[in-house]
Amino acid sequence: MLKLRIEDKNQEIEKELRVCMEEKRGILRDILKGESKYQDSLGWFHTQEWACERQVAALKKLASKIREEADVFVLVGVGGSNNAARSVIKALQTDQKTEILYAGNTLSPYALNQMLQKLEGKSVYVDCIAKNFETLEPGASFRVLRKFLYKKYGEEAGKRIIATGSKGSSLERICEQHGYTFLEFPENVGGRFSAITSVGLLPMAVAGIDIQKLVKGAADMEKQLLLDESNGNIAWQYACIRNMYYKKGYSLELLTGFEPQFRWFYKWWVQLFGESEGKENKGIFPVAAEFCEELHAVGQYIQDGAPLMFETFLDVQEQNASLFAEKDQVEDFFDYLNGKDFWEMNKASFHATVKAHREKLPCLILEVERMDEYHFGQLFYFFMFSCYVSARILGVNPFDQPGVEAYKKWMFEALGK
Ligand code: PA5
After folding, report:
1. Where are the domains of the chain?
2. In this structure, which of 162, 208, 229, 270 has its CB flanked by the most CB atoms within 10 Å?
3. What angle do CA 268, 345, 373 make, to 5 degrees?
């Protein structure tokens, strides 16, 4: 299970947190009871609704057929339509039986041409994931990929196309007309909350990820959080404390960790919190930095710059690899490393960073027992639930994104839609 620790030199912080939790408890109670005004967006709240045994089995069956036949699987989608799957695949895919490529998240012809080049000579499948199928980026990429597939496979191309969209959408009609496989994008789940649905799970399964374990992790976290109205509820603690820090003037949250496997997970997290909370001239700006690398870059700012941010560390507990920096014939003045494992060095770097940073800014540590499917499932559910609670404390609607819609409007106008 996940654990949350607070590293803050303010001795009163735990007391302040308890006061905040007491003041806001009504919000948690309403959420746990089920808020009718958000019912249309809460399809992710009970993982069973869109990831029950039957649904997971069907996704696994489709994925294993694709895995048998495809060298490459192109996930076409942007924002919530690809971030969750990509974060797990990039972290945990161990075989390259089917390589996963990404499109629909850029309009750069250079990047798209590079992606197309990688398809040459390969057996290719495509999944276009688009909830309303109006978004330009996936729509334009899907065109290019269809053209590629029809040129290569003729009418057989249809068998290699999967589309995940809303029921009754133009994407479903296209699937019916052209014989593509259609998967339902749950109407009551927004993109950034769709990790534990067909949206996130099919691409993960195609990459050989054990989605059953991932769903189990999310479901166990759901049980833990939804049954606990007390101050021991870690999502409740996290949601309250981030709002407290925001009120104290910390307007940025920096998510970080010492495992590069989290590189793409950070992007998922940034989108989840950025799109859910940044509204009505409010919200903590979510940023991420990968340590150790960024310690030698933004580390300077974090330590000595304007006190804008608090920091949340993801800290993996169980050692998953080992490598020793052994002495060789070169006198390199690194002998203090003799007999030391990189795991130990990485941990030393983590502890040193927390010690240094906590002098300047509040630090939160989220302990993750192991880097595996089960714990990714836990992290997804933990952060989605926390984000919902946190946005409610902040006083914004967690589930809309009016700002994104505004940008789309101007872009459509520029392109003469
Ligand atoms: O989380 C969200 O709702 C958004 O980020 C969407 O996922 C993103 O805009 C893509 O939308 P669509 O799936 O409709 O193309």
Report:
1. 3-33+215-401, 47-209
2. 162
3. 35
337/6 Cα distance (integer angstroms): 30
165 touches ligand 1 (CB under 6 Å) = no
Select from 339, 297, 275, 318 the least CA-distant residue to 81: 275
Q: How would you label 308-340 residue by residue, b for 16+ Cβ within 10 Å and e otherwise?
A: bbbbbbbbbeeeeeeeeeeeeeeeeeeeeeeee
Q: Measured from the CA of 138, which atom of ligand 1 is nearest? A: 15
Residue that has been written with the tokens 């036949």 in this structure? 69
Q: Give residue-wise pLDDT tens across range 58-102.
A: 999 999 999 999 999 999 999 999 999 999 999 999 998 999 999
Beta-ladder partners of 75: 102, 127
List the CATH code of the domain at 47-209: 3.40.50.10490
- Give the Cβ contact number of residue 121 at 10 Å: 8
Nearest CA to ligand 1 atom 2: 191
Radius of gyration of the chain (CA): 22
Residues with catalytic annotation?
275, 296, 408
Q: Is the distance from the beta carbon of residue 401 to the nearest atom of ligand 1 less than 6 Å?
A: yes
CATH number attached to the domain at 3-33+215-401: 3.40.50.10490
CATH topology agreement for domains 3-33+215-401 and 47-209: yes
Q: What is the pLDDT of residue 412?
A: 86
Of 40, 106, 135, which is best to mutate to test ligand 1, by the most ligand atoms within 8 angstroms of its C-beta?
135
What residue type is assigned to position 209 of the chain? I
Q: Which two tokens stand for residue 271?
A: 């989108």
81 lines ligand 1 (CB under 6 A): yes
Q: How many CB atoms lie within 10 A of CB 246?
A: 21
For the Cβ of 191 lying below 6 angstroms from any atom of ligand 1, the answer is yes
What is the predicted pLDDT for the residue at 410?
86
HSE-CB at 376 with a 13 A cutoff on CA atoms is 31
State the pTM of this model.
Answer: 0.97
Q: Which two tokens stand for residue 91?
A: 């972290």
Q: Tokens 């990820």 identify what position?
A: 209
